[in-house]
Amino acid sequence: MASNWTPDGWKAQEARHLPVYGDAEKLSEVEATLAKFPPLVFAGEARELKKDLAEVAEGRGFLLQGGDCAESFAEFHPDNIRDTFRVLLQMAVVLTFASKQPVVKVGRMAGQFAKPRSAPTEKSGDLELPSYFGDIINGIEFDPETRRNDPERMLRAFSQSAATLNLLRAFAGGGYANLRQVHQWTLDHIDRSPWGEKFSQMADRIGEALDFMAACGVDPTTVPQLQGTSFYTSHEALLLPYEQALTRRDSLTGDWYDCSAHMLWIGDRTRFEGSAHVEFLRGVGNPIGMKCGPSLEPDALLRMLDTLNPSREPGRMTLISRFGHDKVEAGLPKLVRAVKAEGHPVVWSCDPMHGNVIKAESGFKTRPFERILNEVRGFFAVHRAEGTHAGGIHIEMTGQDVTECTGGAIAITDEALADRYHTHCDPRLNGAQSIELAFEMADLLNLEATAHHKQAA
């Protein structure tokens, strides 16, 4: 447990990208209410995830982390949760089948509501209002009342997170994730994509393997790993009043855990020395992710690791690189070398989304699929060259048939972006593009495995 730490100690540090609430009394009331609510997740679950990530850090697994850029109140529907969950299941099956290693599944779900913005206000004509910081803080409609920072939105976000978690637990353990259902996971719009047939062929092979096991006397119904799956949740720990209110001391160990999610991460904009967000996260026992981009120097990264994981606990830290397709091979190696030289046990994961946003001629923000794929390829190339494990992927995606990222085998064009552009924040990969990315990564994982076998020979 971190020394000299309290859940509210972050208030003495510099807090960037936190909303200013006009009604301090109402904020205190909401915080007190949240503090009385039951935890959304349990400390033991966070420890299980940490164990799984420790295996990934040792090169014996892969982290798949994905979900919405920002969850919204308006799009909250069980079908949307189910569709994102099953695309993540499909991706995990593709990656497991290729790598012959376990895939740790973590959703950007059940809490990913708050978003940092580059400017505190935005202007339309002569009207200047607070920027939209996510549904947990204010509303997306551009009017004074909706853009008012309202602490009571935290209560609605908690309620939606609880309902989402309840459904995810049911899907993961209630039979939906049974490998016998693998053919039923495919959505219609994915089935129509060029990768739908490839997934169907792989599903046939999995079915044959299960039939073979049954013929040999191994009853798949008695193997828990074939009946369900472990699925964890994560979000950026940005809105610290919410995170503090859901922080609990574990009755078994006495350690503090942020019980709003299994895993939390700190973004590029709040990752600095003296940061309130760093101070908060150093004291909770959850697995922690940290975004690493072009602005981060090796010495600063090592100091952050010493602050957030002084005991060098395996599975505690996941470093999420986000450079851009044309910068990853130049910028990432120095960070990898520094961490390797110091012996920090980390999971290296790739965020190929945030460094590849462009403005299309149509005016929409988009992310070209080819740039996303090229950053992933560059990430794997760096780790092959450095002899380290390319351990994960962190993507913004949805199971919905949206048109937000151009390209891919389904060839979404600039002109087609307006057809189904629904995101509340940044553009997301749709289901078909996500499956395509999984198959491309499967090939890269095979290359990594071949390289490791050659080194061992």
Strand-helix topology:
Elements: H1 24-36, H2 43-57, E1 62-67, H3 78-99, E2 103-108, E3 121-124, E4 127-130, H4 153-173, H5 188-191, H6 196-215, H7 224-227, E5 232-236, H8 240-245, E6 247-249, E7 256-258, E8 263-266, H9 276-282, E9 288-292, H10 298-308, E10 317-321, H11 328-342, E11 346-350, E12 358-359, E13 365-366, H12 369-386, E14 392-396, H13 431-456
Family: Belongs to the class-II DAHP synthase family.
Binding site for Mn(2+): 69, 354, 396, 426
EC number: 2.5.1.54
Describe this structure in words.
The chain is an alpha/beta fold and 457 residues long. It has a single domain (9-456), classed as Aldolase class I (TIM Barrel, Alpha-Beta Barrel), CATH 3.20.20.70. The protein has helices at residues 24-36, 43-57, 78-99, 153-173, 188-191, 196-215, 224-227, 240-245, 276-282, 298-308, 328-342, 369-386, 431-456, and strands spanning 62-67, 103-108, 121-124, 127-130, 232-236, 247-249, 256-258, 263-266, 288-292, 317-321, 346-350, 358-359, 365-366, 392-396. The strands form 4 sheets. An 8-stranded parallel barrel has the order 1-2-5-8-9-10-11-14, surrounded by 6 helices. The protein has a two-stranded antiparallel sheet with strand order 3-4. Strand 9, helix 10 (298-308) and strand 10 (317-321) form a beta-alpha-beta unit. Helix 10 crosses helix 11. The longest helix has 26 residues, at 431-456. The mean pLDDT is 92.
